[in-house]
Amino acid sequence: MPRPLAILSGLAARVAVKAGHARPLAGGPLAFTLAETSIGIMPATVLPPSHPLATPRAPWAGFDLTRPVIMGIVNVTPDSFSDGGDHAQADAAIAHGRRLLAEGADILDIGGESTRPGAAPVPVEAEIARVVPVIRALAAEGAVISIDTSHAAVMQAAAEAGAMIINDVTALTGDPDSLSVAAATGLPLVLMHIKGEPQTMQDAPHYDDVGREVHDFLSARIDAAMAAGIAREKIAIDPGIGFGKGLSHNVDLLARVGLLHNMGCPILIGVSRKRFIAGLSKGEAPKDRVAGSIATALHTLAQGAHILRVHDVAATVQAVAVWQALQSA
Question: What is the CA radius of gyration of the chain?
């Protein structure tokens, strides 16, 4: 399970790959010159060109992944950790989705059940009633919709309403029917790592090696999805920052997120406004964590992440545009 190190961008990356001193990271445009392996740090070129760290990612959900994809968050909930209640009514959520699209969101991730620490479950019927009108309205306007749910019945209802992506924080483990329903829809997926469940996940989580354990969990869930008939090319993975992880776990995982490239799937990062940012700073409230959210997002893009799930679309789009221009030089 090697980790890419000494990552290059722009002209340096192109020259190093052409000269045989580096491998492209997930197909490029970044490249890495070193790889951390079980026996130490070695030149990246000890890995074959066909290694998952180096091979290009297939298009996912209609996106070719040659640039960062921005997923805007639409919480149709009264109790989400950052914006709960802001868009709890369908009309407000639809208007918010339109704003995010105008600001540059590529995908709208619509959820009807909070997954913040300590959140109580929502009856499936209530979750469907919250999200379906919003999905139907925005999908009819041409938006690419992701349904953020761990319930099979919600996945099915959302797909019928026009959702094009399933985003499950439990990686299709939270409902015994979710794996078969997700496979039957034929939709692309996001599989996320979580330890425990929202009600208890922050009760002293423990890891011996958070990077390896998250990697191994996601690898097993990819295998399960493929066994159910879902093609690897339809799967993106999310390390689940803040989901059953303390501050040190989040920092360690973000520092080593390049490990996840070993699975050959696009990497989605959701760090927007999360508590660890306040823990590293001055204890700011969620809506005052925009700068930290963007700093973390750019850090993960520099390790080859592909998709950013964010609340603050306009600020993220601007930051990514500048980062891309500078990285390409």
Answer: 19
Spot the catalytic one: 130, 195, 221, 309. Answer: 309
With H, G, I as helix, E, B as strand and everything else as coil, classify residue 230: coil
Q: Assess contact for 149 and 121: CB atoms under 8 A.
A: no
Annotated active-site residue 287? The verdict is no
Which residue is listed with tokens 């590293």?
A: 280
Neighbours of 117 (CB within 10 A): 17
Number of C-alpha atoms within 13 angstroms, CB side, residue 79? 12
Q: What is the pLDDT of residue 199?
A: 62
For residue range 185-243, list pLDDT tens digits in order: 999 999 999 987 766 667 778 899 999 999 999 999 999 999 999 999 999 999 999 99
Per the residue annotation, which of 23, 130, 274, 275 is the catalytic one?
274
The closest of 242, 250, 241, 244 to 203, measured between CA atoms, is 244
Domain 57-328 -> CATH class: alpha beta
ω into 29 cis (within 30 of 0): yes
In this structure, the strands spanning 40-43 and 31-37 are: antiparallel
Cα dihedral sign, 27-31-34-36: negative
pLDDT at 119 over 90: no
Among this protein's residues, is 18 annotated catalytic?
no
Give the pLDDT score at 120.
Answer: 74
Distance, in Å, from the CA atom of 41 to the CA atom of 251, rounded to the nearest integer, reads: 21
Choose among 70, 69, 84, 101: nearest CA to 286.
Answer: 84
List the domain boundaries for the chain. 1-53, 57-328
31-81 residue pLDDT tens: 999 999 999 999 999 999 999 999 999 999 999 999 999 999 999 988 665
Q: Which amino acid is at 156?
A: Q
